[in-house]
Structure formats: structure tokens, C-alpha cells
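Progress narrative, Year 2. Work on DUF4870 domain-containing protein from Chitinophaga ginsengisegetis advanced from sequence curation to structure prediction during this period.
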Amino acid sequence: MNQNDERTWGTLVHLGGIIGMLILPTVGNIIGVLVFWLIKRNESTFVDNQGKEAINFQITLSIAAVIVNLINNIVTGFWSLTSFWRHARGEFYSTWGWTNLLGVLWLLNVIFSIIAAVKANKGESYKYPLSVRLVK
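Result:
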């Protein structure tokens, strides 16, 4: 694979998370990266390395989203048993709602995926911050 193709596929691998997230939230971001990575990982070490970075970041974000959803369900379930829920629900969700945390996670996904895609397009490797290295 020539260097130009490596850069293109490296860019696509990083953008796969955004594309997949738009189609199927929570797991689509992982599937999007996997599709591009699995197609070309054996043809280029650059694409393989960037694919591993991208998939680890997407898995980390999906795990964080599941945790936020679980906490949300536990908290709202507990509050629904109390009279406090009826009075505080609107204020809680409008000021610091769990939905906002999910929005922050997806915004981080878009920002860091675009940064990584730009770096890959220049032929530079990118390591995502706060990413759990599950795929090595």
C-alpha cells in the first residue's frame, strides 16, 4: 500500500467512529471503526496501529456511556420512590442532567476523532487521551 493510501485509510479509520455513532449510537462507533480497520489492517502497519488506537477509544467511550446510563437509571429509580423526585426532577435534568453527560461524551468523540483524522491524513500517528488499551 502506498503512503497516500495509508493516510486515506488511517483517516477513514478515525472517522469511522463518528460515522457509526450517527447510524447506531453506543455501539455504532465501534462497528464503524472495525469496518475500516479490518479491511486494511493487514496491508499497512500504520492503518493497523491507528485502527487499534481508534477502536480502543471508541470502546472506552461506549463503556463510559453505558456507565452513565446505568447511574442515571439507578438514580432516577431511587428518586422515583421518593416525593423529592416530583419536585427536583425538572431542575436536575435542566441544569446537570445525565443526558448532558452523554452529550459531552459524544462531543469528545467528535473532537478527538477529527483531531486524529487530521493527524492521520498528515501521516502522523495519534494516541487518544484517556483511552483504555484493550486491543493491542
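Residues 3-121 form one domain. The chain has one domain: 3-121.
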